[in-house]
Specification:
Shape of chain B: globular
Structural class of chain B: alpha+beta
Helix content of chain B: 10-25%
CATH superfamily of chain A: Molybdopterin biosynthesis MoaE subunit
Strand order of the largest sheet of chain B: 2-1-5-3-4
Number of strands of chain A: 8
Number of helices of chain B: 3
CATH architecture of chain A: Alpha-Beta Complex
CATH topology of chain A: Aldehyde Oxidoreductase, domain 3
Oligomer: heterodimer
Order of helices and strands of chain B: EHEHHEEE
Distance between the termini of chain A: 23 Å
CATH class of chain A: Alpha Beta
Distance between the termini of chain B: 45 Å
CATH architecture of chain B: Roll
Largest sheet of chain A: 4 strands, mixed
Radius of gyration of chain B: 13 Å
Number of strands of chain B: 5
Order of helices and strands of chain A: EHEEHEEEHEEH
Chain lengths: 151, 92
């Protein structure tokens, strides 16, 4: 099983990714996906700008994906993370885990998202609805705690 | 090893508010001999100007990576080609 990892400016299509994963792999009985969207924070935000560390972003997500593959018997794994300017309602991140049975797929997708949030080198900056540039989004302690549950 | 030989040139890259405070996205530096760990590199960088001082004001917050792998302050920088400094990550 080779994880599919893409860091891209363009949008992605969940349906197309699931179809590509399932095609030619009839051992898959469960597909769990998570899609993260940009919120408008009650009308406060015009967009989020996502900065990343090219090279390390791919490498770090690959390490996290390899850890997931070592923990659960997976038939497929997809992680797509966008960068650049993303407006409210648009997609930011996609994680898909596929396995023979649902439990492994649920857990692997959850694990992948927790680690992606705390380890993948991405940073969000707010662009405000009034046209001004906002601040950098602060990391949440809850995200660290969520990732710690797996260790 | 001859202690007068300067450390080999090293590429530093900065992201998000660390990049803004330092005022550069990347640079090539030659840390003084004896600079052996990430923490020692940070200590030296802070002597290079106000931007660095502000960026590394709270050393416990700024994260580092050596050649695309997360690194702790005590990690050795021997043989490193690229060291990155950045705030806690907020992707996902």
């Amino acid at each position: 099983m080779t994880p599919i990892i893409r860091i891209q400016r363009e949008d992605f299509d969940l349906g197309a990714e699931v179809a590509a994963l399932a095609r030619g792999n009839a051992s898959i009985g469960a597909v769990v996906s998570f899609t993260g969207l940009c919120r408008d924070e009650s009308g406060r935000l015009a967009a989020l700008e996502l900065e990343h560390y090219p090279g390390m972003a791919e490498a770090e997500i690959a390490r996290v994906a390899a850890e997931a593959a070592a923990r659960w018997p997976l038939a497929g794994l997809v992680a797509i993370h966008r960068f650049g300017l993303i407006r409210p309602g648009e997609q930011i991140v996609l994680v898909i885990a596929a396995s023979s049975h649902r439990r492994e797929a649920f857990e692997a997708a959850d694990f992948l998202m927790d680690y992606l949030k705390t380890r993948a080198p991405f940073w969000k900056r707010e662009h405000l609805a009034d046209g001004t540039l906002g601040g950098w989004v602060q990391a949440k302690e809850d995200d660290d705690k969520a990732a710690e549950r797996w260790s | 090893m001859n202690q007068h030989v300067a450390t080999q040139p090293l590429k530093l890259v900065y992201f998000a508010w660390v990049r803004e405070r330092v005022g550069l996205s990347d640079e090539i530096v030659s840390p003084p001999p004896g600079t052996e760990t990430v923490a020692e590199l940070v200590r030296w960088l802070k002597t290079r100007g106000e931007g660095y001082e502000i960026a590394f004001e709270n050393e416990a917050i700024v994260r580092a990576a050596i050649d695309h792998t997360h690194a702790k302050p005590a990690a050795s920088i021997a043989g490193a080609r690229e060291i990155a400094f950045f705030p806690p990550m907020t992707g996902g």
